[in-house]
Amino acid sequence: MSLEARRRERGISQRELALAAGLTRQAIGAIESGRAQPSIAVAFSLARVLDTTVEELFASAREQAEAGEEPRDDPGATPSRFAAARVGERIVTRALAGELLATEPAQDEGPGVESTIFVAGCDTGVGLLAGHLNLAARGYRAIWFSATNRTALADLRTGRAHVAAIHGTDEELRRVLAARGTARHRAIAFAAQDEGWLIGRGNPRGFRDAAQVLRASVTIANRPRGSAARALLDAQLRAARREPETVPGYARELDGQLDAGRAVSAGFADAAIGLRSVARLFDLQFLPLRAERVVLVVPETHLAHPGVAALLETLRGEAFRRDLGALGAYDVGSTGEVVRPS
After folding, report:
1. End-to-end distance of the chain based on CA atoms, in angstroms?
2. d(C-alpha 72, C-alpha 74), whole Å
């Protein structure tokens, strides 16, 4: 059952649903029409309000995409808006589009620029963290911007974000955290999870292990340079002795983890390198390649920001750890601990 059908079944208007879920009516319209993909946090919020599960609520949208149907247009949906926050001494304005539209309250509602936190990173669990802070009605809100590791760290360096969420192996993270320019940053453990191959639901190609994927003729969904997924894909290609230009789809880059998961789910690609959490979200087959950790990197100058402090307190809270662990893709044993490079 679609979001719109469930909402109508319960006799709830778009405005009423938006108010109950902490969104805008335009955001609800954008999700129902297929113009916006909800973050994990927003999906959980809508499912709770409508007394159903995320899988049940968004299954028909996924089936529509697989059938190649065009999303229905909603003339009331706003394609793009902006959010502003104070990052250090500057007021920073960033555009909201696509899935981010569904995380942004109306401009005349909720916290303003002094109480808004920008978080950059590609792990979808960061959306859940932002949602927990936003739904707690503590006077602060976090907005998650999907970004590769490289872009997220660049956003910290250039003052476009308060927090960067990056992921990689312990060795990769040690190199990043020990690098020049990050010495005055604090790293906090978010969670551990696996990265590997995302394969179509039901494993239609019959892959028995990860090594088989690049030995077959597959179309992949690729990620940009600077992402952990791209680095891992290139390492897999070298190990398989395959030239990138021989792999269909290699030249086309998709911005986020969710984009890669959608491409595989809808059948536009046979496989993509991605996180286990994305496989669970889109009900995809997952063939693990390596264990990784996700950490939040925060400049020490931002630790005194009350909103950042509230975000980290939410991260360490039992409610968030329980919900993140319930996704079935994360190990939350060290969540909230300070990570020290060695």
Report:
1. 50
2. 7
Please tell me the distance from the alpha carbon of residue 103 to that of residue 200, in angstroms, as a whole number.
28
Contact present, 84 and 91 (Cβ < 8 Å)? yes
| Judgement on whether residues 22 and 56 belong to the same structural domain of the protein | yes
Structure letter (DSSP) for residue 189: E
Q: Which two tokens stand for residue 80?
A: 């793009």
CATH code where residue 176 lies: 3.40.190.10
> What's the CA gap between 122 and 327, in Å, rounded?
17
CB 155 within 8 A of CB 128: no
> Do 123 and 204 belong to one domain?
no
Tokens of 70: 């065009």
Instruction: Give the separation between CA 260 and CA 149, rounded to whole angstroms.
Output: 16
Q: Which tokens is 307 given?
A: 């909103």
In terms of C-beta density within 10 A (0-12 exposed, 13-18 middle, 19 or more buried), how is residue 215 classed?
exposed
Residues 126-167 pLDDT 10s: 989 998 998 876 789 899 998 899 999 999 999 999 999 999
